[in-house]
Amino acid sequence: MSEEPLQELLTRKVQIATSKALENNGEVDGEELAALARLAELVELCKRSQEGRKHWVLPLSFCVTVFVVGFFLFARVWSMKIELDTAMTGVRFVLPSEQVLVEEPIIVLAGSRTHV
Q1: How big is the chain by its Cα radius of gyration, in Å?
Q2: Number of neighbouring beta carbons within 10 Å of residue 28
Q3: Cα separation, 43 vs 30, whole angstroms
Q4: Cα–Cα dist 26/32, whole Å
Q5: Alpha carbon 41 to chain centroid distance?
Q6: 8-state DSSP, 115
Q7: Tens digit of each residue's pLDDT (9 = 90 or more) over 60-93
Q8: Is the pLDDT of residue 3 over 70?
Q9: Whose CA, among 3, 55, 61, 72, lies 20 to 30 Å from 19?
Q10: First and final CA of the chain: distance in angstroms?
């Protein structure tokens, strides 16, 4: 059973009981108070049972995510055709600062060290 109609019913009955208590100088009928307590307990039980239904959403979304990621990680494309059309006049590489690409070679001639 849905929680909202029961909650509305409980709210209406509490309002009625409150207005009766104000008319009777705070006196409340014991049976009416017990009926309100039982109805409040029923509303609380409905809330708890509906909260339990939502616990499967997070594990299900996790499992679906793992399945989809696993599928894309292990799915293989056995052949692929790639076409590249270019018209180039040259290739140029630019470094942000000057760097040594080749150091001066050390040549050893007849036991002496000489820099070229």
Answers
A1: 41
A2: 13
A3: 20
A4: 14
A5: 34
A6: E
A7: 888 999 998 888 888 777 777 878 888 888 878 7
A8: no
A9: 3
A10: 94
